[in-house]
Structures are given as structure tokens and as C-alpha cells.
Amino acid sequence: MESALANASAIVDQRQKIEQYKHILSTVLSSNDILQAKKFIDHMLSDDVPLVVSRQLLQTFTQELGRLEAELQKEITHYILDQIHPRVVSFEEQVLIIREKLAELYESEQQWSKAAQMLSGIDLDSGMRIIDDTFRLSKCVQIARLYLEDDDAVNAEAFINKASFLVSNSQHEVLILQYKVCYARILDLKRKFLEAALRYYDISQIEKRQIGDETIDEDALEQALSAAVTCTILAAAGPQRSRVLATLYKDERCSKLKIYPILQKVLSLFLMIPGTLPHACISTCTSLLVRFYDLKSPF
């Protein structure tokens, strides 16, 4: 390995140098040898390799990592990030690709928070490269959605708050919808039930069935409407809650929901304080929350 890298380093022609390094990289990946992979990375980040070459080779390395087993991919990408850290300003594009690749891997394993943490390490405010607001918004929303998969409202809210400064000027309908869903879910998890109910109800009234490349099906809208009803039932008593309950009761779509009998019961008995609901009613609400109220990915 050392002699092959030394020979490649000695090549004057840059195109030939890159091709020789790519040949070595292919051999390293085929061997599944973690030590050889780390030696290659160390060499790429050394002063022996011009920056333009090391950037290209690290990018190629990352793109080819899919040839390795998942655990090897994780170890290698974490090693690259650790070694790059002192020179991260010189490798921002490569770090972005590496973090996105590793986040995809964690997401495929349903390690949602790890995927979110990996993406949160991307510098979205870098002065070294041009980053448009749509990309910033997409990453903030993506990170929030990942945290919400683990019901982590605190970390999700931090990124939705960042997204709030970007979404008002965005024309990207899919991202706007995803932002709205995340916001409603965060309010829900924070037990701000009435605010969550209003946002869920707003989502349930979407008229478009195709937004960008996203298809909005009736089941998703029904799920949002059911969430609006459930949150309203669980909200604290007050005039606004009474108005929302009345609005939902008058909405013909609610009569088709499985939670509708509870809505009827709450209204008919004028039981507006969650703490005074009969035990049977509370148990039914809880059961519905578990069975019919999985809004982690409603769209």
C-alpha cells in the first residue's frame, strides 16, 4: 500500500495521478480491509496530495462506500470526519456528502436521532460556499422530522424554529407542508393540544392532492383530522376549545372518524375539562391515541 501511494504521489500529470489513486481506492474497497482504508484516507489528507486531488478522491471514496458492509461504512466515515475536522473549512463539500451518506445509513436502520445528529453537523451558515435558503430549509425540516420519529420535541423544535425564519419566503410547497406537519406534531408532543388541534385541522383541509412530487391521499388528511379531534378533546377547558369542538362536530368529515363517538359524547355531556372525563372515556381516548393516531409521518 505504502509503495503504491508513494508512486501515485510522484506522478506529475494530475489526471494520471487521480486515475492511479482511483485504481488504488478500488483495490482498497474490494479488500474490505479497514486498516488499508484508513491508510488511504490518511494519505489523502496529508501534504503529499494536492487539495484539488484529495477533495475529488474523498468524494469518490464516499460515493463508493456502498460496496462495503454497513458497519465498515460507519467506521470509515466517522474516521474521515475525525481526520478532516482540523481542516474542515477546506473540505466542506466533502463533509456535507459524507454526513448525508451516513445519515441515510442510520435512517435505513431506523436510528432516527443519530441520523438527525449527523445532518445537524452540516454547516448551513458557511461563508466559504453558497448555500441557498431552500437547501437550508430542507435540511432544518429533515432534521426536525428525524427527531420527531423518536418523539424528541425539544431538538425538533430547535430546527423548526430555524426553519421558521426561512419558510415565510419559500415557494417550495412540499417543504412548507412538511414544516406545518412538524410544527403541529411538536405542539402535540409538548401537550399544547389546542394549538396543535388548530394546525392539524388546517392541514386536514388541504385541497390539493398533488403538491410537487408528493401525493396527498385521503388517509393522510383523515389522520390529520382525527389528530385535530383528539387534541381538542384533550385540551384544557375554555371558550376557544368549545368553539373548536363545535366546528369539528359540524364538519361532516368527522362523522366518518373512529373517534367521532367520543366527540359526540364530550359535546352531549358538556364535559369540557379533561380531568373530569369519566375513566371509560379517558381509556377510550388513550386507546385511540395508540391505535389511530400515529402521526409520525402523516404525509
UniProtKB/TrEMBL annotation:
<feature type="domain" description="PSMD12/CSN4-like N-terminal">
    <location>
        <begin position="13"/>
        <end position="207"/>
    </location>
</feature>
<dbReference type="Pfam" id="PF22241">
    <property type="entry name" value="PSMD12-CSN4_N"/>
</dbReference>
<protein>
    <recommendedName>
        <fullName>PSMD12/CSN4-like N-terminal domain-containing protein</fullName>
    </recommendedName>
</protein>
<dbReference type="GO" id="GO:0005829">
    <property type="term" value="C:cytosol"/>
</dbReference>
<dbReference type="GO" id="GO:0008180">
    <property type="term" value="C:COP9 signalosome"/>
</dbReference>
<dbReference type="InterPro" id="IPR054559">
    <property type="entry name" value="PSMD12-CSN4-like_N"/>
</dbReference>
<keyword id="KW-0963">Cytoplasm</keyword>
<dbReference type="InterPro" id="IPR040134">
    <property type="entry name" value="PSMD12/CSN4"/>
</dbReference>
<keyword id="KW-0539">Nucleus</keyword>
